[in-house]
Every structure is written in C-alpha cells, then in structure tokens.
Amino acid sequence: MLRAARHAGLETAMLNLLWARIALRVLPLLLLLPALASAADLSPIPEALKTELSKVQHDPPPKELAANAHFVISDERAHNLYRESVQGLGGVLVGVGTDPNYLFAGWMKAELVLLVDFDQVVTDLHGVYGVDLKNSASADEFVGFWSPKQQAASLGLLEKEAPDAATKKRWVAAYKLGRSQIYDKWLGVKKKYKTDKVPSLLSDADQYAHVRKLAQTGRIWAWRGDLTAQNTMSGLANVLKAQNLEVTVFYITNAEAYFNYTPQARKNLHDLPYAAKSVLLRTQGRPEKADEIADGHYTYYVQSGKDFVAWLERRGVTSAKPICWVRKAMGPQGLFSLAGPPQPKAKK
C-alpha cells in the first residue's frame, strides 16, 4: 500500500511538472493574441487624448482635387479581400477616403479611428457619418439614413446636431451631394457580401454595435489632411507617440498614385508609430492587367508597416511603384502581399 501511494504521488508530481512546462510555453503565445475590444469595452475617449487630438491642425485645401472630383464613395469594390489581414487586430486605424474605413473598423475591432482626406467634402461626410451612427440603432437604419425616403429626417438631424452654423451648412451640402451615391454603394456592398458570405457591420450585429460605439464614445476623428503636407499627419504621429498608441491598420487606398515621396511626404508616412503587427493596405489601378485585378480595375496589396518603413528609408525610392514590383499572390485574384526592400548584395 505504501508503494502504491508513493507511485501515485510520483505520477501526480510528474503531471504537475508537465502542466507547468506546457503553461510556460503556451502562456506567452496567448499574450501575443490580440485583445478584441467589444462595444461594451469602449469607454468614452480619455480627456487627455481628446485634448491632444483636438489640437491637430487641418492642412490647407489643395489647389485642385484629384481628377477634379469629390470622391464621396470609394470606387474600389473588393475590400472584402482585406478582411482576413485586418481581422481582430484592434488598435488604431488611420484611413484615407470614405466608406471602406467603416468596414475595416468593424473587422479589426478598432479602438480609435483617425481619418484624413485633402477634400473638405470628404471630411464633412465623416461628420455626417458620425450623426448617422449615433442615431441609427441598426445597420439597416444606418444604410437607410441615406435613402430618399429618409432624406428629410436625416437633414433634420444634421441641422440639429451640427455644433455651429458653418458646420451645419457644410454637413447639409455634403449629405445632399453624396446621398444618392452613398446609399447605392452601401446597398451594393450589402448585396455582394451577403452573396459572398462575408460578415461585416452591415450583417453582423456585433460589428455594427462596435462601430457605432466608436462614434458614440468620440473615437472617430476626421481632418482635412494631406499626406504630403506639414500639419495633420505629423500632428497625428506626435499625438500617437505621446499617448503610447500604435497604428495597426493604415489604409492608404491609391493615394500614392497622385504624389511622389517628397521629403515631407516621406516623413509623414515614415513617422507614424506602426505596431509590430501593423498592416498597410493600398490599391493600384491596373485595368490593363485583367488577371491581376479583383474588381475590374484595382489590384489590392497588403504590406507590414515595418516593411513599408524600410522602403521609405531607401532614399532612391521616390514613389510606391517599385514597392509594388515584387509581389506574392495571396490566393484570391487581385490580392498580393508586398515584402520589404531587397537586401544589398554583400561585397566580394
């Protein structure tokens, strides 16, 4: 009996040792997993962060707009290709343009959304989206805000909630300009994603609740910001660094097609504090490459923030073109990953 007891005690000790070893290996891996913020986790934006973000200046309006048009919607149609690359990353989203950013915010469970575009109309539309999200309890209401049937009610909300007369005038004008295109765009996305079985804020109640809570807690901000100018991007980089926040997703769309990496542009893009798990999302219009596009016009690229910074540190790289030369297909047509710059050859 004594021998059996000793044997049982030895087995117990060995099992405890085994579990301890497993814990030592598994726990560090668990700590690396993203902590997914739910809508319930999002408290009002901290006052210190709110104060600092409010100091970030807009850039001057451009002398002319790209293609001389207001891009009230994105003409990219395959943002679902990015879903797996951003899902659950959390953290800070920095985005250019309009509607895709709300999809990304839902997929990644963003905790802070910072939006820039050099077109004042686009900036104003984000103000309109804020009113929409705060007053729409469901995704259907969110889309319906832009419908012809709801136009009068939506305009009434904008007039009621605008902080001042000048903002009210701009919000109303932006809504009227974009309403029809935006409504059609969201209906199209909803239909496509339902067919393709892609969950998004339009079909997933938890995602919609999360994006709505971002608006309700003051965690969505927008500036008239120019990626090549001196105020907005550098201001955002400074605030994020001071607040110990990192960018996990940077959606730059196809903006790089319209500028070279001037010293200021290079600094703006380089100085953002990219998280180790960060991804940069860019598109490139290549309609002549039918086998490399996803939506009839654009190729979609995913790149780590670290690798993007490494390219920016190559002074001979003056645009995004060489960054996109060496790409690896990720599976779906039109989606590619981009690596860092090639290492210099060792001298013989």
Explain what this protein looks like in three dimensions.
Strands 3-2-1-4-5-6-8-7 form an eight-stranded mixed beta sheet, with helices on both faces. It has 348 residues and is α/β, with parallel strands linked by helices. Helix 4 crosses helix 9, helix 5 packs across helix 7 and helix 5 packs across helix 9. It has one domain. Strand 7 and strand 8 form a beta hairpin. It is 45% helix and 14% strand. The N and C termini lie far apart (74 Å). The chain has twelve helices and eight strands.
The helix count comes to 12
Biggest pleated-sheet summary: 8 strands, mixed
Structurally, the number of domains stands at 1
Instruction: Give the class from helix and strand content and strand pairing.
Output: alpha/beta
Q: What share of the residues lie within helices? A: 40-55%
Number of strands: 8
Uncertain runs with pLDDT below 50, 5 residues or more?
1-8, 22-35
Using the alpha-carbon principal axes, give the shape.
Answer: globular
Oligomer: single chain
Secondary structure elements and their pairing?
Layout: H1 2-32, H2 47-54, H3 83-86, E1 92-96, H4 100-108, E2 112-117, H5 120-135, H6 139-144, H7 151-161, H8 165-196, H9 205-216, E3 220-224, H10 232-242, E4 247-253, H11 263-270, E5 274-285, E6 298-304, H12 305-312, E7 327-329, E8 335-338
Parallel strand pairs: 1-2, 1-4, 2-3, 4-5, 6-8
Antiparallel strand pairs: 5-6, 7-8
